[in-house]
Amino acid sequence: MSEIIQGSRLALAIRKKVEDQVQGLSQTPGLAAILVGDDPASHLYVSLKERAAKEAGIYFERIEYPKGVLQGKLLKDIRKLNKRDDIHGILVQLPLPNQDENAVIGAIDSRKDVDGFHKESLRHLFRSEPGLVPPVALAILKLIEATRQPLQGKTAIIIGNHKIFAEPIIHL
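Above: the chain's sequence. Below: its structure in token form.
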């Protein structure tokens, strides 16, 4: 029997929980989003993340660069964000148009890597150690859990266009 998963309801419940947690903190969490280029989908994703962060009471800083920004400039600016006390999380919107994604993500302090793509974050995940689970993978797990269906004996197919998204899902 198939069932339509009500993802929007689940998302609202999670956002409310995050908002409640943020209100209980002594310091406002800060999130920086780095956006390179003019890809419409990337701009939409960052706008949605910005709206969700602001609704939850999280300070959001959007940092945009042209498509041709030099990788050295990105790395330098990420290192500055790593040192800022008001920025607790950093994300780089993928895909990057001309820059080395591994180098750019690797420049993020792993403790501030909110996407869970840093090699240290992935190492913890693949070793089943405590740490951040990539949000895309976690969202899929939450949707599956919402069905309350037993998974034993079931088969899953994962179709992804980038291993950085697919591998955590496969592992989980």
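The first strand starts at residue 30 and ends at 36.
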